Amino acid sequence: MGLEHIILLILIIIVGILFFKLTFKILRYLAINTIVGLILVGILNFLGITHIHLNLINLLIIAVGGIIGVFILILLSIL
Protein backbone atom coordinates (compact mmCIF):
# COMPACT_ATOMS: atom_id res chain seq x y z
CA MET A 1 0.00 0.00 0.00
CA GLY A 2 1.58 3.23 -1.15
CA LEU A 3 1.49 6.67 0.32
CA GLU A 4 -1.16 7.73 -2.23
CA HIS A 5 -3.56 5.07 -1.00
CA ILE A 6 -3.13 6.12 2.62
CA ILE A 7 -3.75 9.79 1.78
CA LEU A 8 -6.81 8.82 -0.29
CA LEU A 9 -8.17 6.73 2.58
CA ILE A 10 -7.69 9.59 5.05
CA LEU A 11 -9.44 12.04 2.69
CA ILE A 12 -12.37 9.65 2.19
CA ILE A 13 -12.75 9.29 5.97
CA ILE A 14 -12.66 13.08 6.47
CA VAL A 15 -15.26 13.67 3.72
CA GLY A 16 -17.46 10.94 5.21
CA ILE A 17 -17.32 12.47 8.68
CA LEU A 18 -18.14 15.95 7.33
CA PHE A 19 -21.01 14.52 5.27
CA PHE A 20 -22.57 12.80 8.29
CA LYS A 21 -22.16 15.87 10.51
CA LEU A 22 -23.83 18.11 7.93
CA THR A 23 -26.63 15.62 7.35
CA PHE A 24 -27.24 15.35 11.11
CA LYS A 25 -27.42 19.15 11.48
CA ILE A 26 -29.94 19.44 8.65
CA LEU A 27 -32.09 16.61 10.01
CA ARG A 28 -31.99 18.10 13.51
CA TYR A 29 -33.08 21.49 12.12
CA LEU A 30 -35.98 19.90 10.24
CA ALA A 31 -37.01 17.82 13.26
CA ILE A 32 -37.09 20.84 15.58
CA ASN A 33 -39.06 22.89 13.02
CA THR A 34 -41.51 20.04 12.51
CA ILE A 35 -42.10 19.48 16.22
CA VAL A 36 -42.59 23.19 16.98
CA GLY A 37 -44.84 23.63 13.94
CA LEU A 38 -46.97 20.59 14.72
CA ILE A 39 -47.42 21.70 18.33
CA LEU A 40 -48.52 25.13 17.11
CA VAL A 41 -50.92 23.63 14.54
CA GLY A 42 -52.31 21.31 17.21
CA ILE A 43 -52.93 24.19 19.59
CA LEU A 44 -54.54 26.32 16.88
CA ASN A 45 -56.75 23.43 15.73
CA PHE A 46 -57.71 22.59 19.32
CA LEU A 47 -58.67 26.18 20.14
CA GLY A 48 -60.72 26.40 16.95
CA ILE A 49 -58.79 29.37 15.59
CA THR A 50 -58.13 27.57 12.33
CA HIS A 51 -58.43 24.09 10.91
CA ILE A 52 -55.38 22.96 8.98
CA HIS A 53 -55.48 19.45 7.55
CA LEU A 54 -52.24 17.56 8.06
CA ASN A 55 -51.23 15.97 4.79
CA LEU A 56 -47.83 15.45 3.24
CA ILE A 57 -47.62 18.85 1.53
CA ASN A 58 -48.62 20.73 4.69
CA LEU A 59 -46.18 18.68 6.75
CA LEU A 60 -43.34 19.55 4.36
CA ILE A 61 -44.23 23.25 4.55
CA ILE A 62 -44.23 23.04 8.36
CA ALA A 63 -40.95 21.09 8.42
CA VAL A 64 -39.09 23.55 6.22
CA GLY A 65 -40.73 26.76 7.45
CA GLY A 66 -41.40 26.02 11.11
CA ILE A 67 -43.48 28.77 12.69
CA ILE A 68 -43.36 30.84 9.51
CA GLY A 69 -44.63 27.81 7.58
CA VAL A 70 -47.57 27.53 9.97
CA PHE A 71 -48.45 31.17 9.40
CA ILE A 72 -48.24 30.64 5.63
CA LEU A 73 -50.66 27.72 5.94
CA ILE A 74 -52.99 29.86 8.06
CA LEU A 75 -52.97 32.56 5.39
CA LEU A 76 -53.62 29.99 2.68
CA SER A 77 -56.50 28.46 4.64
CA ILE A 78 -58.10 31.92 5.03
CA LEU A 79 -57.96 32.53 1.27
Task: Sum this structure up briefly.
This protein is mainly alpha-helical and about 80 residues long. The chain is built from 3 helices and no strands. The mean pLDDT is about 90.
Question: Any overview of this molecule?
Answer:
It contains three helices and no strands. It has 79 residues and is mainly α. The mean pLDDT is 90. It starts with a helix and ends with a helix. α1 crosses α2 (56-65) and α2 (56-65) crosses α3 (67-78). The protein has helices spanning 3-47, 56-65, 67-78.
Using the CA coordinates, give the radius of gyration: 20 Å
Measured between the Cα atoms of the first and last residue, the distance is 66 Å
Q: Specify the overall morphology.
A: rod-shaped
Spans of at least 5 consecutive residues whose pLDDT stays below 50 are none
**Helix content percent band:** over 70%
H/I helix tally: 3
Per DSSP E runs of 2 or more residues, the count of β-strands stands at 0
Query: What share of the residues does DSSP label as strand, in percent?
Result: under 5%
Name the average pLDDT.
90
Order of helices and strands: HHH
